[in-house]
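Example record

One chain of 74 residues, shown exactly as stored in the release files.
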Amino acid sequence: MEVLWSQTNTLEDIDYMGKTGTTKWGRVKGRKGNVIMVPEAELSHKRPGPAQRYTSSGAKRKKIARSPKALVKA
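Predicted structure tokens for this chain:
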């Protein structure tokens, strides 16, 4: 009897980068009140837009703190 691959190997057995389903998602309110899905690593911070890309001293900004009100309660 032939055994299917999915029956013999699970996600825990093999640890490859980029497996489907490895990204954990969180929910955040978008600009117009709609809910958008973002990776959990980006829940507390967001990437700055073009107008907020540089600080007043001229250094490039990598992250901007996200408002606590923007997080959607589950």
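Notes: The chain has a mean pLDDT of 79.
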